[in-house]
Amino acid sequence: QQVLDTYGLELKLACFASSSFKKTISSSSVNSTPDYVDITPEDNVDDVANYIENRLGYKPTIDELKMFQYVPNPYQYATEYLKHDFRHRDTFRDRYWFRITNGSISGRYKDDTSNIRWIKYKSSVTDDTYMYTIKKPFSVEGPITVCISEGIFDSIGLYYYNKMNTSIRNVIYVSVLSSNYTKGIEYVLDKGIFGNDVRINIYKDSDVHYIKIPSKLYQLFRSINIYQNVNGKDYGMRDIEIEKVIERKNEDDNYKNRRRSL
Q1: What φ, ψ does residue 249 adopt, rounded to 5°?
Q2: Poorest-confidence range of 40-44, 98-102, 204-208, 258-262?
């Protein structure tokens, strides 16, 4: 109960002690997106679809682009929702824009020729706490895997990796947009996702050598596992090969260091 109180979660001690499956929310509160963002048949998504295919090896469907929270009309979104007064639409050209959790949008340049690959727009209608999630439906009635990574294309790359190479289907994808992976754990806790049927998988960049996770967090999940891509720095690429670096279950006294491919 003390651990739950630390993270602002209200749950009776008897429930925490006896239940093997502890989740208190619906999927909509994790993957919520306003109706303001949508892709219509009139929107041209060929460029972003080709970019994703060239980068990751898979061409997204319209439904997948919606899950990825792709914003087809960033100028309209920024002026009408974020209340920015832009005089020139050129600001939004040659970038692929995605909505993040606080309502802001982040744009990736169309290739690697720009020194500023990502830019973000926010306003007074958004707060400073933000992450990225894939708006993928999941069930609260079965085991849940939470995949936490750094960047937007890390989550999208992991989505395709799991879809094509693993049996993992009931997944929440969270990108912390930094190297503070614990933010992703705190995000799902804030949404009420925890318990013995919830696994946390952290997919770290290869240049991250230390991740500090408060020990109390391990009591709230079945396990917290750390992975890396042995074929590259991150997961926004083709030919991902994932290796488990650390597994720690909530009943473990110490870390179990295990290196093996999934």
Answers
A1: -90, 160
A2: 258-262
Q: Which of 133, 110, 129, 109 is nearest to 119 (CA)?
A: 109
Q: What is the per-residue DSSP string for the chain? A: -HHHHHTT----HHHHHH-S--B-S-GGGTS---TT----TTS--HHHHHHHHHHHS-PPPHHHHHHTTEES-HHHIIIIIS----S-GGGGTTEEEEE-TTS-EEEEESSS--S--EEEE--TTS-S---EE------TTS-EEEEEESSHHHHHHHHHHHHHH-S--SEEEEE-SSS-THHHHHHHHHTTB-EEEEEEEEE--TT-------GGGGGGEEEEEEEEETTSSSSSSSS--EEEEEEEETT-SS-EEEEEE-
All residues at 6 or more sequence positions from 239 whose CB lies less than 8 Å from its CB, including other chains? 57, 231, 232
CA pair distance 76, 81, nearest whole angstrom: 8
* CB neighbour list of residue 233: distance below 8 Å, 6 or more residues apart: 205, 206, 207
> Largest Cα–Cα distance of the chain, in whole Å?
59
pLDDT digits (tens, 9 = 90+) for 63-109: 999 999 999 999 888 888 888 776 667 788 899 999 999 889 999 99
Task: State the Cα torsion 8-14-18-21 to the nearest 10°.
Answer: -30
Residue with tokens 């992450």: 131
Query: What pTM value is reported for the model?
Result: 0.83
User: Please, are residues 21 and 197 in contact by the beta-carbon 8 Å criterion?
Assistant: yes
* Nearest-angstrom CA–CA distance, 212 and 158: 22
